[in-house]
Amino acid sequence: MGQVADLPGAACLELVDGVIHLDPKTALLEAMLAGWVRQQRTRFLNEDGTIQPRVSLVRRLVDFTNAYPWQWRPADAEAFIEHLRSTNRERPIAMSTGRGYETTLALFMDFLTDRRYGWSAECLERFGQVPQQVFHEDNRAAHVVDYEGRPGRRPLTYDEVQALFDAVDARVEQSRDRGRKGGLTALRDAALLKTVYAFGLRRNETRMLDLADLRRNPKMPQCGRYGGLFVRFGKASNGSPPKRRTVLTVPEMDWIVGVLDHWVSEVRPLLSPGNLPALFVTERSSRMSLRGLNVAFAQARNAAGLPPEHDLHALRHSYVTHLVEFGYPEKFVSLQVGHGYASTTAIYTGVSDEYRNRLVERSLRDRHPEMWEDE
Predict the structure, then answer these.
(1) 63: nearest Cα among 53, 54, 76, 48
(2) Does domain 158-364 have CATH number 1.10.443.10?
(3) For residue 357, what pLDDT is reported?
(4) pLDDT tier at 145 (50, 70, 90 boundaries)?
(5) pLDDT confidence bin for 155, thresholds 50/70/90
(6) CA dihedral 30, 33, 35, 41 (to 10 degrees)
């Protein structure tokens, strides 16, 4: 134990013997980051979604402290997080974001202080200092509640969902009345937002849907080719590939069948997508971008007069909540939305007072049927 090994990311593999750098400290930092990137790649972590944001965060701490990792102390990292949380900033980070930053920086320092990679020995030999862990149990944000998001963010009520859809449908009518070319994109946005809600999809899951992902359900032949969606780009975790699942069309949401059929059969061909397999396409015959999805929701939200705290993900929260209120079992709801743990689904759920009142009334009827004998 404690011996330097030829592990991916080890100092002996990243540093070239006999090379004299004009700026040795910066050169060592870059070698460290290159080694950390290599170590994470061997674990099949996502390059754009995980590795590069982590490297960027380390560089931000370097810039903030004007010091190198082997010079950092816990007070430096604490000051960095406090700066990001400051209310003087235009957009202070949330506690959950801060905890994620602390975890990332702790992982980087674990990498540097692990003797098997040899970085501590290199720092001691070159600069007489060794890196130390900057985040530990006593100076990291404690995780004491299940949900730490903004209080203003919540599932939409049935009336709010209807207002959102009314707003996007009104945009379609306005575009038609004015004879504008935007009518096709308005129809697309209407179908897109309704699909997100009717299947409880995430942004990227929606963006990456192809026509081939439309599924028939033998138990619901009346839905035709829209009995479900095969989600191929579900949220990945711990270096795994995107998770896949089939989301069934539930009877309470079967209105989506007509919406999708109109979009696929009549509207989408007018955008001339050619051989593009994407379900939702732009007027330039390309796949929708994540930003395009956000803009579509924001326009409908603002037109409906809904609070600005809501984003596209609110439709997914609403879907979970409404499935629970429809009476679907917890396991079924978790499978529909691709949650590995029921506790995650519970966080998404925000049932209405009316629903809870119905449960209380049902319990009273079961316990005291004589109270309702005269009805």
Answers:
(1) 76
(2) yes
(3) 60
(4) very low
(5) confident
(6) -140
Strand partners, 246: 230
pLDDT tens, residue by residue, 50-92: 999 999 999 999 999 999 999 999 999 999 999 999 878 888 8
Between CA 31 and CA 16 the distance in angstroms is 10
Phi and psi torsions of 333, nearest 5°: -60, -45
Rounded to an integer, what distance in angstroms lies between the CA atom of residue 372 and that of residue 364? 9
Q: Which of 33, 39, 104, 40 is nearest to 68 (CA)?
A: 33
34, 147 Cβ separation under 8 angstroms = no
CA distance 133 to 154: 37
CA dihedral sign, ordered 160, 161, 164, 165: negative
- Encoded amino acid at 178, one letter: R
- CB contact burial 319-335 (16+ within 10 A = b; e otherwise): bbbbbbbeeeeeeebbe
Q: How far is CA 364 from the centre of its chain?
A: 41
pLDDT tens digits for range 227-240: 999 999 998 876 67
Strand order, beta sheet including 214-215: 214-215, 228-231, 245-248
- CA 35, CA 6: separation in Å to the nearest integer? 12
Residues near 219 by beta carbon (within 8 Å), at least 6 away in sequence: 227
Average pLDDT score over the chain: 87
Best CA proximity match to 131, nearest among 105, 113, 114, 116: 113
